[in-house]
Amino acid sequence: MGRDKKFSTHDLWQATHELIVETGYQGFTMSLLAAKLHVSRAAIYKHYPNKEELLIDFMVEKMRYSVTLLSEIDFTQSFEHQLRDLLERMFQLKDLHQILGMASTIEDVSPVITEKKQVLSAMHHELYTPLNQLITKGKEQGFIDPARNNFLLLGFIFQTIDIPNHAGLPLDTFIAEIQALILHGISNK
Amino acid sequence: MGRDKKFSTHDLWQATHELIVETGYQGFTMSLLAAKLHVSRAAIYKHYPNKEELLIDFMVEKMRYSVTLLSEIDFTQSFEHQLRDLLERMFQLKDLHQILGMASTIEDVSPVITEKKQVLSAMHHELYTPLNQLITKGKEQGFIDPARNNFLLLGFIFQTIDIPNHAGLPLDTFIAEIQALILHGISNK
DNA sequence: TTTATTAGTTACACACGTGTTACTTTGGTG
DNA sequence: CACCAAAGTAACACGTGTGTAACTAATAAA
């Protein structure tokens, strides 16, 4: 019963994704989102009681996808192939990574939000485990000095993913270059 | 003549710096700034006609300092010492780096702003030159493969500076670790 | 001590963001 | 066809941010 919807849940997440990438968390407004969906602001409030709950649900959704994507890596591969596989997957998640970084800045306007922020934070750790496993493997197989701090290596890889492609290299060579930088730094081999 | 000022230009830049680090560009308001200076909002408008001009002047000021600091590097040092020197100086500029990244998001509310944004952008290139010189030196002295793209190496070094120190390492060892990562990546030597 | 000048404050008008309420539209069901 | 329920809209109250104008306070010079 009732009349037809003007936008689906999928439309909503799509528009939210675009808008948050375009304007950032602070610039994200319900008016802009409504405009993107060709709908009045109040229509969105029929589905979500406030902006914060909408955004946190969006992030949980994206996080779920990210965790799945990274956990699907084939661990039987060699260290180097596994690294390459991981990098390619992390590249797919590039803007998600920054979006998810905004999660902590969402205001705790209701207990529901506080709760879901903790869920997100837990999933964030889950996201790191495939990367951690890779580092462990690298240490075992002699690619990485076991004395090295895992947090540091993790941070290093995450930061390296975000290098801007100012040179305009094709994606394949760009990823290959980044892999080389991660493995051997700027030094001549 | 006239009465005593309640805040100096130095106070203003200090408060602006603190506030923009605390709240980010979007969260920066004249009310918060005024509160930090223990002054009414209107008092600041006696010095600056609007928020944008204040922020762009602040950034030009900071940029000038950054360019000077990086240009003071001793180029007679060895490649590795010069890199270390550079890294230490870039660490001093850590929050400045992110602040200056916000420059492009300042709205062009007046032609003065558009003009100063271009000045900032030009100084941004100046900031890169010491780094570029270092890379060139590294290529000449055989530390770096000359075929490698300078933009990529530059981006790599800039990103690496921003690795979060989650492990809580002391600054000295942290910088040393980062230098090692830049030079040789995660690989065992 | 009077006065000019500069610094600062209070109060206003305006714009825009949020969330709610009362109303309208639209489609299936008895 | 009547009417009910879901979906949507318009309009309101409220908060907060910006920039301005009229007023007040303090200090140095005449």
UniProtKB/TrEMBL annotation, chains A, B:
Per UniProt, what is one Pfam family of this protein? Answer: TetR_N
Q: Does the keyword DNA-binding apply?
A: yes
Q: Which UniProt keywords apply?
A: DNA-binding, Transcription, Transcription regulation
Extract the GO molecular function terms from the UniProt entry: DNA-binding transcription factor activity; transcription cis-regulatory region binding
Q: Tell me the ranges covered by the HTH tetR-type domain, including all copies.
A: 6-66
Q: Decide whether keyword Transcription regulation is in the record.
A: yes
Superkingdom, natural source:
Bacteria
Mind listing where the DNA-binding region sits, in residue ranges? 29-48
Signal peptide positions on this chain: none
The name of this protein is: TetR family transcriptional regulator
Q: Specify the species.
A: Candidatus Kurthia intestinigallinarum
Q: What is the lineage of its organism?
A: Bacteria, Bacillati, Bacillota, Bacilli, Bacillales
